[in-house]
Amino acid sequence: MDASEHEEAQVLYSARNGPEIVQNINANVRKQTRWTFWLITAGISTTFGAAVPTGYNIGVINAPANVIKSWCNETIYETYGTVFTEGNLETFWSAVVSIFLIGGVIGSLGGAWVADKLGRKRSFLLCGFLLVVGGLCFQFTKAVSSVELLMIGRIVVGLAAGLTTSTIPMYLTELAPLGLRGALGVLCSMGVTGGVVVGQVMSLEEVFGTEAHWQFALSFYVILVVAFFVPYHWLPESPKYLFVIRRRQDEAVNELKRIVGRKVRDEYVKQQVEAMRKECTTDNQLECGEEARAEKSKERTLISVIRDPALLLPLVLVCALQGGQQLSGINAVFFYSVSIFESVGLSSTDAKFANLGAGCLNLFVAFFSPILMAKFNRRFLALTSCSMCAIFLFCLTFIVYFIDDVEWFSYASIVAILLYILFYQIGLGPIPYFIGSELFEVGPRPAAMAMGSLASWGCNFIVAMLFTTLQNAWGAFVFLPFSFTCVALTLLLKFYLPETRGVHISQIVPLVAQGFRSKPLVP
Questions:
Q1: Rg (CA), the chain
Q2: Whole-model pTM above 0.70?
């Protein structure tokens, strides 16, 4: 038997015995699940080199807003001789803030193309490059008296943020063994959450949030990017990307061996290779020949993924989770919490610190995400998180509406906020970031992750644009749409989200391939 016949025989065996192979792989993976040097290094490098800076740029802009707006007004007058009214200045500042979100949308759209053309590892490099360019813009915007440079910096870091959320979770989950897929997948979420808190701290008036130093607050994260890109050259590329998309099988096997370490048995490596080979086929059907396999394993475009009826349900789930994460009201709660803290007698300064404390609670709970993902099923965590968030948002609406009539409602509102944050972070916070990697095979995965990231940044933009207006018009009832979103998301997940923890992708795909006629909960 020559080499080609041997390879075809392997593919034939894989196609005919797929379920048995996958069950053996799943059992063996659980035995071989362990943290290795390169898994830890890749996780730390991507989290602190891209995810934390992304969150940093979300959290850093609020505290020094008045100082930066004043500088913008003076600079525009000196440059163009134009004096902004208060309304014009607010509109301009809204543009400065929201252009970051627009950059996130654009970066998400480009994430699929970048992940397939450059690879998962070099996508991370592009994220770092854009973050450094944005940081340099922030650092020199005051020195050259250019509001345009501030705007450029905001949109560049927005591009990096969109690219980060669409590619980094995918990169980490493709490196991870099955048993650690959730633990590595939530690192991006943890990084963004931690970055928001760090950004809030660095922008305090006691640190860099002053008239003389606000540019340092905006650009401080560059130190993290540079420091945690030091090991970049030695980081592994995704074996699945090399094997399935680029068809560089020998290189993929070498990277796989490097990731899992020397202590892992050859049997495990062979089974992982067999699993990747299985992803080169569709619906477990045999197609022989290099040309056919090359056609089947090539990357998928956004349009082809959107038009594929077999991918409709998983795409809806990914976009609903990513968009629902933003429409669940987490940013609105943090925005409103300052006034709630003030209502219990805290000064304006103390209320801001209390709000920072709520952010620290969010981060504290996020630290337990890897343990939760390893110990509990995705469906249980997602359904618990969505349903409880809906309940506490409704409670918060009721409490805030009657807060002036009942003395102890001020304290009840704080409890409702803290419980909402707690339940948000056990499911709605981390799961949307990586669920696309568990519902899609390697080919359509970048496009699906890009669409999910697009939904996230798009909904974030909608909330940012409409929340203040709705708050002024509806008052306490502004939380009701967020509560209804959580209810709708709970129902969608209850009927259509399959359990993905510890399950191989080839077993998940058939469960959601029939659109809304799928029955993913049927064993």
A1: 24
A2: yes
